[in-house]
Amino acid sequence: VQLQASGGGLVQAGGSLRLSCAATGSIFSLNIVNWYRQGPGRQRELVAGISRSGSTNYADSVKGRFTISADNAKNTVYLQMNSLKPEDTAVYYCNWFPARSWGQGTLVTVSS
Prior knowledge:
Elements: E1 3-6, E2 9-12, E3 17-23, E4 32-38, E5 45-51, E6 56-58, E7 66-71, E8 76-81, E9 90-97, E10 106-111
Parallel strand pairs: 2-10
Antiparallel strand pairs: 1-3, 3-8, 4-5, 4-9, 5-6, 7-8, 9-10
């Protein structure tokens, strides 16, 4: 089973994007699916996570702006990103926890 992130793009500050993380098999083959990001010159960081039971957690920097959700029927996890800021610019990845191999990610660029 592999995960593929998509949905990135260029958006103005204050705008919104929805990222998708699609699995080739069961999205919750492990209990937790996380979204991570890596901005220019920065280390990869955890953005949000969701468990099979629906429990969610968020980095402080995105609380109140980002929402993670899952559609088990579509084997897809989403990341709804609102009120985007230039500092949200990064390559966004999805992965299980514990992490397996990393995919290519999807680039989000927020212009000021």
